[in-house]
C-alpha cells in the first residue's frame, strides 16, 4: 500500500501471534499498512508464509518475517524476541492473538481434553510473554501488549462457557499486568471481539457453518453483522499506537453492540 504520510505505527516493531490467518492476519496487514515491521509468530509455517509472501513484491517486502513457534512454549518466546531484535533491532508491541475455541455445546459434555487445550493455548501465552517480553519492555521503559480476549469474557452466554472462562482469564490478567507494569511505562490492553469472519465460525455454531446459524447470531448484534479481521486490526492499531499512550487496562469491545443485548 502506498503511503504519502507517516503511518500511525511508523518505525514500530511488533510480534503478532497467530498472524497467518483470521484476526491475526487482519492485525498484521493493518500494522504493516501503518508502517510497522512485524514478526509473524505462527505454529503453522505455511499460514505465516502465505501472509508474508503477499508483501514480497511491494514496498513492504521487508516488513513481514515469519517465525515458526508455539505460543505456549517459553523457549519459543525467548527465540522470537531474539529473532525480532536481530532482524528489526528492537521490539515495541506484542499482540497475543493466537487462540482456540471448543465446539459450542452443553458445558458438561465438553471433553476434559478440550477444556485443557482451551485453557492451555488461550491463557498460558500471557504468562510466557509476560515472563520473556515483560522484563525487556520494563528495561526499555516502554512497550505495549494487546491481548485478544472475547466479548464472551464480560458477557458469557450458554454453551461456550469454558472458552469464555479462558477469555475471562485473558481479560483479568491484562488488567492486572496493566496495573503492575504501568509505573514502568508499559501498557496492557485487551480487545473483546464478537463472533468474527474466520475459521472459528463453524465451532461457534456447534460444528457446522449454516445460513440459519449465522442469521441467529447476526440478529443479536445491533450493527447487524459479524466482526471482520479489519475491525480487529483497526482497534489493535489504535491501542498499540502512541495515540493511546494514556490508555491501559481496558477491555475494548469490538462487537457491533452485542454486549448491550
Ligand atoms: N473468530 C471469532 O469469532 C473470535 C471472536 C472473539 C475472539 N476471538 C479470538 O481471536 C483470536 C484469533 O481467532 P481467529 O478466529 O482469527 O483464529 P483462526 O483459527 O482463524 O487463526 C488462528 C491462528 O493461530 C495459529 N495458532 C494456533 N495455535 C497456535 C500456537 N500454539 N502458537 C502459534 N500460533 C498458533 C493458527 O495456526 C492460526 O493461523 C483467538 O484468540 C480467538 O479466541 C475470535
TrEMBL record:
Classification via Gene3D superfamilies: NAD(P)-binding Rossmann-like Domain
SUPFAM superfamilies: NAD(P)-binding Rossmann-fold domains (SSF51735)
InterPro entries: NAD(P)-bd_dom_sf, Sc_DH/Rdtase_CS, SDR_fam
Key word Oxidoreductase present: yes
UniProt keyword annotations, A-Z: NADP, Oxidoreductase
Pfam families in alphabetical order: adh_short_C2
Taxonomic lineage from the root: Eukaryota, Fungi, Dikarya, Ascomycota, Pezizomycotina
Name recorded for this polypeptide: Uncharacterized protein
Recorded GO MF terms: oxidoreductase activity
Source organism of the structure: Meristemomyces frigidus
PROSITE patterns listed in its UniProt record: ADH_SHORT (PS00061)
Amino acid at each position: 500500500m502506498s503511503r504519502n504520510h507517516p503511518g500511525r505505527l511508523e518505525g514500530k516493531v511488533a510480534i503478532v501471534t497467530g498472524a497467518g490467518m483470521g484476526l491475526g492476519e487482519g492485525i498484521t496487514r493493518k500494522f504493516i499498512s501503518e508502517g510497522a515491521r512485524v514478526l509473524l509468530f505462527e505454529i503453522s509455517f505455511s499460514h505465516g508464509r502465505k501472509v508474508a509472501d503477499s508483501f514480497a513484491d511491494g514496498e513492504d517486502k521487508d516488513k513481514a518475517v515469519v517465525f515458526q513457534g508455539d505460543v505456549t512454549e517459553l523457549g519459543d518466546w525467548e527465540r522470537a524476541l531474539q529473532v525480532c531484535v536481530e532482524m528489526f533491532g528492537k521490539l515495541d508491541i506484542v499482540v497475543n492473538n493466537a487462540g482456540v475455541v471448543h465446539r459450542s455445546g452443553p458445558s458438561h459434555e465438553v471433553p476434559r481434553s478440550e477444556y485443557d487445550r482451551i485453557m492451555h493455548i488461550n491463557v498460558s501465552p500471557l504468562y510466557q510473554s509476560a515472563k520473556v517480553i515483560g522484563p525487556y519492555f520494563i528495561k526499555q521503559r516502554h512497550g505495549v501488549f494487546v491481548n485478544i480476549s472475547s466479548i464472551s469474557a464480560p458477557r458469557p452466554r450458554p454453551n461456550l462457557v469454558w472458552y469464555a472462562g479462558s477469555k475471562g482469564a485473558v481479560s483479568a490478567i491484562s488488567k492486572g499486568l496493566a496495573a503492575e507494569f504501568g509505573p514502568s511505562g508499559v501498557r496492557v490492553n485487551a480487545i473483546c471481539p464478537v463472533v468474527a469472519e474466520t475459521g472459528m465460525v463453524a465451532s461457534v455454531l456447534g460444528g457446522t457453518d449454516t445460513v440459519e446459524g449465522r442469521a441467529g447470531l447476526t440478529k443479536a448484534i445491533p450493527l447487524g453483522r459479524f466482526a471482520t479481521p479489519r475491525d480487529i486490526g483497526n482497534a489493535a492499531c489504535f491501542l498499540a499506537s502512541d495515540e493511546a499512550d494514556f490508555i491501559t487496562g481496558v477491555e475494548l469491545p469490538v462487537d457491533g453492540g452485542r454486549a448491550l443485548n
